[in-house]
């Protein structure tokens, strides 16, 4: 099974499973395992995609 992060690309909306208070974030870039996301409540955060599986949001 492919990791969920492998489908992420810039512009997609995601949530961080361990930080629900960050709100919905928009993927800015994906470079290897590093995923830069601009979250509504937390600003820009770089996620280690090897450790954290972001959850795509299909309806906001």
TrEMBL record:
Lineage, highest ranks first: Bacteria, Pseudomonadati, Pseudomonadota, Alphaproteobacteria, Rhodobacterales
InterPro entries in alphabetical order: DUF3553 (IPR021938)
One Pfam entry name: DUF3553
Organism, scientific name: Rhodovulum strictum
The name this protein goes by in its record: DUF3553 domain-containing protein
């Amino acid at each position: 099974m492919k990791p969920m992060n492998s489908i992420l690309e810039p512009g997609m909306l995601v949530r961080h499973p361990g930080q629900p208070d960050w709100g919905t974030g928009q993927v800015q870039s994906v470079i290897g395992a590093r995923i830069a996301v601009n979250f509504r409540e937390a600003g820009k955060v770089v996620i280690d995609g090897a450790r954290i599986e972001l959850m795509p949001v299909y309806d906001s």
